[in-house]
Write a structure and sequence with these properties.
single chain, mainly alpha
Length: 170
């Protein structure tokens, strides 16, 4: 029986890049060859199949923080807090996050969830009212955008003037 040479056979043998074995596979091959002394840690590795030790997961890991459920409850009670603009380069937490963290702190001291919610709501009442009225900590959305645009334009004009002065045109 003659083996027919096809383009598929040639491709798979000669052109298809071969996948390098993983480090764990190489390690197991070296240990099983008998050239090396078997370390004590091998007993731990022998309990698992190599397929179980894959580092890549098909599904992304899901992180759950205890304050996330508290933040969702806060957003249900105060949906206008979702509209609060957040400055990404600041260390000040958004109102919902501050509320949830403070509520969690009180709950860890032994206060019930409902009592902690009421206490934190009283503590942060001025800020909650400001958000409800649309008086955000950094102004309205429009004012925030205008401030950022003004800063960018000022920086561009300053750079332009510095280049003009350096070239001696002015």
């Amino acid at each position: 029986m003659a083996v027919r040479t096809t383009y598929a056979n040639v491709f798979s043998v000669f052109l298809k890049p071969k996948r390098e074995p993983g480090l764990l596979s190489k390690y197991m091959r070296d240990i099983e060859s008998g050239c090396f002394e078997v370390p004590r840690s091998f007993d731990i590795l022998r309990r698992y199949e190599t397929e179980e030790l894959k580092l890549r997961h098909s599904k992304a890991l899901e992180l759950r923080f205890p304050e996330n459920t508290l933040m969702k409850e806060f957003y249900v009670q105060h949906p206008e807090a979702k509209l609060e603009p957040v400055t990404l380069n600041s260390f000040q937490m958004p109102l919902a996050k501050q509320f949830a963290v403070r509520q969690l702190q009180l709950m860890e001291t032994g206060v019930s969830k409902a009592a902690a919610y009421k206490a934190v709501e009283e503590e942060l009442q001025p800020r909650i009212l400001a958000v409800q009225r649309g008086e955000l900590a950094s102004g309205t959305h429009l004012e925030l955008a205008q401030r950022e645009e003004e800063q960018a334009l000022d920086a561009a004009l300053k750079l332009f003037m510095e280049k003009k002065m350096a070239s001696g045109v002015m």
